[in-house]
């Protein structure tokens, strides 16, 4: 038996956990599963070598030397025994991590649209989010009519049918995961609809102006490439599809409500004039992954004041600021 009881240091980490649940990328068939926080057990035989332990932890986790670590001391006990099954309680991890400005939610790094973890900080919240700050093809963008490539362009082929849906409040938006045979065909590839969700005001700007809201319809092809169709929403008459979705609105974050079978039909969200702007961009939420084909329909759809109000009561502002074009061409279908 050692004369001094070793400390068990459990590391509760927002740092280094996997990224799950970006708004623009969650597959409909796979609900985001909160990953357990990583736990690393390291023994310190005295308080004097705490710094050394910290250095070991940093090295083990690949954390930069100056980066602050959050450590929960869970008590004393015999070396090795029972440590493998111990995990820090989620609330302790969250409260500890909050002090470093990286609050954990079920093992995910917390980000938001304002404050310390707002868009200007996304790129620094974890290494996987680097591209939010460093990427050169980020979304959303401001589309200037006078600066587009105007000309003929293929029609977007929408093939949407009656489908099943589950409405989710994911803490960043209201999202509907879609199960059904819904595809678009564009640029010679077929993309399947995974989910759609909303932002207010619209993230994309046209001539410096945002719409009241936007719906993002997220599709993926067999090669794993993403194509997002943006439908701008302006105040007017009520939209029937949004009426159905709002009817099954979840009550709190991470609450999910299954809609009646085949109630969803995304055709109800599409304008009759389907001319568009198109450009390459990124997810507009962390991890801001690039290589996303963006198509913004030029004709807005209408929503009622009441429909708009309900969403803004939940999310008053969930739009990322516009990002630099960096010379990207924007195509404008005539
Ligand atoms: Zn979006």
Characteristic terms for this protein:
Carbonic Anhydrase II; metal-binding; 334 residues; disordered N terminus; three-stranded antiparallel beta sheet; binds zinc ion; 13-stranded mixed beta sheet; alpha+beta; single chain; 30% strand; EC 4.2.1.1; globular
Q: Would you give an account of this structure?
A:
- The chain is of the alpha+beta class and 334 residues long.
- The chain contains six helices and 21 strands.
- It is 15% helix and 30% strand.
- Strands 7, 8, 9, 10, 11, 12, 15, 16, 17, 18, 19, 20 and 21 form a 13-stranded mixed sheet that branches. A three-stranded antiparallel sheet has the order 2-1-3. The protein has a three-stranded mixed sheet with strand order 6-13-14, with no helix packed on it.
- The radius of gyration is 23 Å and the shape is globular.
- It starts with 6 loop residues before the first strand and ends with a strand.
- The structure holds zinc ion.
- Zinc ion is lined by residues 23-24, 197, 199, 216, 284.
Summed up:
This protein is α+β, with helices and mostly antiparallel strands and 334 residues long. The protein is built from six helices and 21 strands. The protein folds into two domains: 104 residues, no CATH class; 192 residues, Carbonic Anhydrase II (Roll).
